[in-house]
Write a structure and sequence with these properties.
2 helices, alpha+beta, six-stranded antiparallel sheet
């Protein structure tokens, strides 16, 4: 609905690093926007599909035993869905941001 939003909270923990990032996807007057690191971007239909695909892929993340653990918390209203990726292979947030045209370094 108009003025609703959901948040993707990403954290990565490893032997020598700790990182957290927040993405907010909101709807304003039938248009969707992404807010990331203080910047706002209007999303195209293609970019909305990329985010939907990312959400589907989260269902299949592998919680293996890599030294780096990536966690994803999807918040919508009072609901939180948590996903853990310990595979050191998927790099979901990196590829999502890359495909959305937002450059991001791999940890």
């Amino acid at each position: 609905k108009n003025k609703e939003f959901f948040k993707i909270i990403f954290s990565s923990q490893g032997c020598f690093h700790s990182d957290e990032k927040n993405l907010i996807i909101s709807r304003k007057r039938k248009k969707y926007f992404l807010e990331y690191e203080g910047k706002s971007k209007r999303l195209s239909k293609k970019e909305i599909k990329l985010i939907e695909h990312f959400e589907i892929e989260l269902l299949f993340v592998n919680d293996d035993f890599c030294t780096t653990r990536e966690s994803y918390n999807i918040q919508f209203k009072d609901k939180n869905d948590f996903y853990n990726d310990g595979s050191c292979k998927w790099k979901g947030l990196y590829y999502l941001l890359k495909n959305l045209g937002i450059s991001e370094n791999i940890n």
